[in-house]
Amino acid sequence: MIKGGLADRISRMGRLGRIAGDSRPERVMVAASFVNRVGNGLFNAASALYFTLVVGLPAVRVGAALTIAGVIGLCAGIPGGHLADRRGARTVMMAALAVQAVSMAALVLVESWAALTVVATVDQIAAAAGGAAWGALVVRVGGDRPALFRARLRTFVNLGVVLGTVGAGLALAAGTRGAYITLILGNAASFALCAGLLLLLPRYPVPAAPPRQHRRFALADGPFLTFTALYGAMGLQYPVVSLLLPIWISEHTEAPRWTVAALFAANSAFCVLTQTRIGSRVETPYDGGRAFRTAGLLFLVSCPMMALAAYAPVWAAAGLVLAAVFVHSLGEVWESSAGFALGFGLAPDHAQGRYQGVLGLGFSTGQALAPAILTTVVLGLGTAGWLLLALFFAALGATGPSVARWGMRTRPQPGMAAEATG
User: Fold this and answer.
1) In sequence order, what are the residues at sequence separation of 6 or more whose Cβ sits closer than 8 angstroms to the Cβ of residue 72?
2) Three-class SS of 50-93
C-alpha cells in the first residue's frame, strides 16, 4: 500500500505528474527510478570522503579499488542482458537491486583495501547486469514509445540525484561517522525499496526469439556496434561539466568558486525541465541520428565558450561559464535522447537486454577513459585542447544520420526505410 501510494502520489504532482506517464506501470517505474537515484545522490557525494576520512584508507588505494571494481563490472553487462532476455527483465533487475542493497550495507563494515575491493566489485557486477535489465524493462513498460518513456525517466533521475545530493550536503556538514553511515545505509535502503516497487509491475512475457537463421546479436551487428562506439566517445561530454570545467575554472579563470556549485545546479535543473520536451521529438532511429548531430553542434559551441572564460574579467567569466553550461546541457539532452532512440530502435525486441548490455559496455568504457583523456589532452593543451574537443564532438555528431540510415537498412523491418530523410 505504501509503495503503490508513492507511485500514485508522483502521478498527482502537477507537471511532473503528467511527465510520469498515464499508466500505472509507467508511474511505478518512475517512482522506482526516482527512489534509486535519491539514494545514489546520497552516496556518491560522500563515498570517497567516507573511505578516506572515516575508514582511513589512502585516496590512491580507494581509487584503485574502485577502478578494479569498475573494470570487472564492465564484463557483467552483456551476460546480465542475456539473462534478462531469457528469464525476464523484471526478475533480473530485482535480483541485481537486492545484491546492491546487501553490498552497499556491507560497506559500513569495510576496514581494509581488500574488503573494499571485493564489496565494490560485487556492487559493480550487479549494477552492470541490472543496467542491461533496466533498459529491457523500459522497453516493456514504455510500449510503443520506449525512447519517450526513457526521457521521462531521466527527468526524475536528475531530480532524484539533486535531492539526494542536497541531503548528502547536510550530512557532510555534520562530518561525523554516524552521518556518513546514515548516507550509506540510506542508499542501501533505496535499492531495497526500488526492488520492492518493481513487484508492482506486471509479469511481462519474455518475447520469443525468431528462428536461429534470422537472429541478430549485438556483437555481430555492425551498425549497432558502430553507434555504441560513437555513443561511448560522445559520452566524454558528461565529465566535461563534472570534472574538466571545475578544474578549468579554479586554475585558469577569475570566476568565483561558487560558480562550480552553480554550474552543477544549472546543469541538473535544465535537464529536468527539458528532457521530456525534447525527448518527445526524438523517437525513431532516424530522429536519433539527427539528434546526435544536433548534440555535436551544440558541444561545438559550448566548449569554446568554456575556454574563453579564461580570458574574461571575473563577472564576465562567471556569466560566460553559466551560458556555456546552458548550451552544453541542451546538447546533453539531445545526445541522451539520441541514445534512447537509437539504442532501443536498433535492437530487436527479443534481445533488448543483450543490446542494452553492449550499449552500456561502450558507454561505461568511455566514462572510464574520460578522466585520463580530459585531464591530460584537453587540460594539457589548454585553449587548443578545448577547441579540439569541440571539433571531436561535432565530428562524432555528424555521423549520426548516416549510422541511423545504415542501421535501419539492415533491420528486418521492411517499410521503415521510406522514413529516412536528411
Assistant:
1) 121, 124, 125
2) HHHHHCCCCHHHHHHHHHHHHHHHHCCHHHHHHHHHHHCHHHHH
Q: What CATH number matches the domain at 216-411, 1.20.1250.20, 1.10.10.10, 3.30.470.20, 3.40.630.30?
A: 1.20.1250.20
Q: pTM of this prediction?
A: 0.73
Q: Looking at this protein, which amino acid is placed at residue 225? A: L
- CA torsion angle 217 219 221 225 (round to 10): 140
Residues 6 or more apart whose Cβ sits within 8 Å of residue 365: 74, 232
In the structure grid, which three cell numbers stand for residue 248, read together?
A: 578549468
Helices (H), 107-176: 113-142, 146-174
What are the distances in angstroms from CA 416 to CA 344, 406, 411, 412, 420? 15, 12, 9, 10, 8
239 in Cβ contact with 377 (< 8 Å): no
Sorted by where each begins, the domain ranges of the chain are 2-198, 216-411
Residue written as cell 564484463? 75
Q: pLDDT tens digits, the chain, 422 residues: what are they? A: 344 555 555 445 444 455 555 678 888 888 998 998 888 878 876 777 788 888 888 877 887 888 788 888 888 888 888 888 888 888 999 999 999 999 999 999 998 999 999 999 999 899 888 888 888 888 788 777 776 777 778 778 778 877 887 777 777 777 788 888 988 999 999 999 999 999 998 888 777 666 554 445 767 889 999 999 999 999 999 889 877 888 888 788 776 666 666 777 788 788 878 877 888 888 899 999 999 999 999 999 999 999 998 888 877 888 888 899 999 999 999 999 999 889 888 888 778 788 888 888 888 888 878 888 888 888 889 999 999 999 999 999 999 999 999 999 988 754 444 444 44
Q: How many angstroms separate the CA atoms of 33 and 314, rounded? A: 39
Four-point Cα dihedral 272, 277, 278, 280, nearest 10: 120
Question: Would you identify the CATH topology of the domain 2-198?
Answer: Growth Hormone; Chain: A; (1.20.1250)
Give burial (CB, 10 Å; 0-12/13-18/19+) of 322: middle
Task: Answer yes or no: same fold for 2-198 and 216-411.
Answer: yes
**CA atoms of 416 and 413, how far apart (whole Å):** 6
